[in-house]
Amino acid sequence: MSKIEEVRNAMIAAMKAGDKQTKESLSMLLAALKNKAIDKRADLNAEEEIQVVLKEIKQTKETLEMTPADRTDIIEECRKRLSVLEQYAPKLMDETEIREIIRETLIELGMDAPAAKEKGKIMKALMPKVKGKADGKLVNEILTGFLK
Questions:
Q1: Rounded Cα gap, residues 20 and 11, in angstroms
Q2: Disulfide engineering: 3 pairs with which of 44, 49, 53, 102, CB 3.0-4.6 Å?
Q3: 95-109 and 119-130 helices cross at what angle (nearest 10)?
Q4: What is the pLDDT along the chain (148 residues), one digit of tens a residue?
């Protein structure tokens, strides 16, 4: 079953249950998935579906970060939306897994003590390995800790 069918079925279940917030979150995700498929002019593969879900999660997190603290209604809505969206995202790597992949990549590139100016080269080799499996921001922060 594709993500579009999965999300549509969950949205119908939320409508029947009268859960308006979940239904709206799923509706937005469904629209994003359909728009991506329309742009591509073909069905999405599993990796592309995951990218759409992760993009929606990232946008919701950015909205949450930029929302003033006194706007509790928006904050609560974003948190609810995140909890719904995260059900459709793959489990992301934790810090220790990311550190291990960074070590492996540094060994592959033959770098014992990488300098800050080599960060771009390292990221270029590293990101294809973690794309869709780890938060890019977290990968960047951890890699910065490895640099001299």
A1: 10
A2: 49
A3: 120
A4: 688 899 999 999 999 999 999 999 999 999 999 999 999 898 888 888 888 998 999 899 999 999 998 999 999 999 999 999 989 888 878 888 888 888 888 888 887 777 788 888 888 888 888 887 887 888 888 888 877 6
Q: Which residues of 6-44 are buried (b: 16+ CB within 10 A; e: fewer)?
A: bbbebbeebeeeebeebbbbbebbbebbeebbeeeeeeb
**CA gap 72, 136 in Å, rounded:** 28
DSSP 113: S
Paired tokens of 58: 């990232």
Closest CA to 88 of 127, 128, 44, 39: 44
Q: Is the distance from CB of 133 to CB of 50 less than 8 angstroms?
A: no
Q: Can you read off the two tokens belonging to residue 24?
A: 């709206």
